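User: Predict the complex.
Assistant: Input components as received:
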Amino acid sequence: MIPRRYGMVIDLDLCTGCGACMIACAAENNVPPPQPRATDRTGITPMRVQPVSNGATGADRREAFIPLLCMQCQHETPCVSVCPQQAVEVDRATGIVTQMPQRCLGCRYCMAACPYHARYFNWWDPQWPPGMEKTLNPGVAVRMRGVVEKCNLCHARLHAAEDKAAAEKKAAIDPADYVPACVESCPTQAITFGDLANAGSAVAQASRSRESFRLLEKLGSEPKVYYRSERAWVRELAERPARAPEVKRG
Amino acid sequence: MNPTRRDLLAWSGGAIAGLILTPVPWKLLGDSAKWTQNWPWIPQPARGPVEVKQTACALCAKGCGIRVRMAAGAPVGLAGAATHPVSDGALCPLAFGAHQLNWHPQRLRQVLHRGHPASWQDAVAAFRKAVAEGPVAVVDGRPGRAASAVLEAFAKQHGSYHAVATREEQSLAPYAEWSGVPTAALGYDFANVSTLVSFGAPLLDGWGTPGSFARRWSRRQVRLIQIEPELSRTAACAWRWVAIRPGSDAALAAGIARTMPLEAAAQQSGLTPDAIEELTRTIVAEGPVLAMSADAQPAVAALNLALGGSVVQRREYAAPRVPLAGSHRGILIDSTVPWEYEPQASGEVFRFAAWSGGGSHADWLLPAPGFLEELTDVPSAPASAIATYALAAPLMKPGHPVSSAVEFVGASIEEAIRARCERISRDGAGRLYRPGEREPVALAGLKLEEELMAGAVWVDNPKNTKIVRCKLKNWPSEVGRSEARRSWTANWAPPVLPPLAAKLFQESNLRERPEGSLV
């Protein structure tokens, strides 16, 4: 069977910055409500939408929103190479960079190594208001304090799709059965998800378009998350050195 | 026995070999890893049969279609209903965490009389006394429902009925004045627009149903020209953003329509006369055009008519939006009324709410059913082009005694909904969209109420939507009331936000924290 390479193309010209993907991701993956002390650095946002601008002021100012998640690096994956516990690996069958919280000892080397700041540490015990634990997604285990986590392209949904295919005695899953929560929740359908190894798939075709690009492509880690924009200034942001985002929290 | 050096080496070698070969330390390591991941205070997801149900979201007036994943009797995830004719699979960000709201710490679980716990019997006795002494005013936040008809009938018998208009309806107020059609029956037909000129309406940030305009915009079927002083989210995503001076909407609209000299319009708006001329040419280059504003702005409505744009009238039960005023013995406020609403009238206030937002002046706070806990009907979304009807089925039971305003006045919502379903069935017009099916079916031979309970949506025949004819003799001289920029949660009826909403403003820099919100 040909190995799959799951990835996505996010059309930044369609992202309105509503944040539906962030909340849908957290609900799907049993991310707890934030502690009062949690900040943009210590909170858990496996999918994070970052507002960016062209730097101009007044009527010349333009803004865009970049959803940031684990880029699912295929080549010399930085987090995999530094993990002393082998808690991170690139799944050969799917290309998904998986994180095993059971093996993680919380050293956070992977967080330092990730060029995209796409990894988050559980600084607190996961807690919900009394009774709210009934709303936890039964397909996803709650992570404990002291481990790192990140986007795994809604692995539980992949498992459910594989279970369904096995029950129907099919060799491969139906692509419609495996849609990550962020993709499903986007009200403008800005995210195209699928198997990049399948040259005929919509995601593979979109990734080859002239307007598509990847963040920090020069690092050579072959991320499987592509972006697309017709705006040149947005595309230029991809290779710009990272700056600390302006902190603006309530 | 005297151990020799050879014995010592043999024992050491044996111990090392035993340590490597025995499974005990590895088992202990594994067990300790599991033990540290199963602290008793770490919740475990409940196990149970998983089922997916489709219904309508009743948290605001728009009634988007939702797919609710239920496990062990509780909702564990929400998603948009893909083929829903109202929302087209799209939901607002808050909806994705809404299933957690029923366990929100601010959930109102007890009858409160001026801040002190009281019983339902006390509340009923106090209300009966108010009704006997009369008059009683009823305030409804979502008119047009079956519950509204019940409350209106009760109110007309014992006092007066009042309704609160949504922000979408407010922008239609000028057309209602010029045409005589009630605001509640007016709507915008986005499906037949190629160029949309928006004077500050947050079309991509919470205005109307997420599926109504955003999906059309995302398919690049419409040019959005956003005229606004600030670079809002909608302006950032618009095909073109025109930055003007705050409060100069009316002047620019008059300038585009040439009912004001270009120089004067330019002076007020901060644009140049050439820029206004170029903007006008751009607007009319690709029709049909629709111009709209965020609030009631007569000049923008007049510009819309001048550009050949229109608004439509859908077939709708339309209760007049009469604001509450004067003196009443009792004031009954339905749970659909936004929490920040304060009655501008005197009287003993009986307020229904599922969540307490704090700081209420109500004499009685009465716990109402929460999300997915009551049967209610969802009529057309405000400002929609076509009449629709759906039901929000009760998928779970509340954990404490609750009552809706309809039950409180001694009526039955089931009967009212049945009567409305029978009326639609008798009429026979329109089609029914079943969950997961793209093609609608005719009503003949269907049990409408059962279908709607299973997540279907009734949509009226498009022939029953007609273009409104407005009588406008002179260009409106009054400048519309343009309210301050509203929060992105302006349409959200509960006073609390889902806890996960904090991801957007506490754990990231995406949005401003909404003022006065409780998370």
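Residues 170-314+475-485 of chain B form a domain with the Dimethylsulfoxide Reductase; domain 2 fold (CATH 3.40.228.10).
Let me know if you want any component modeled separately.
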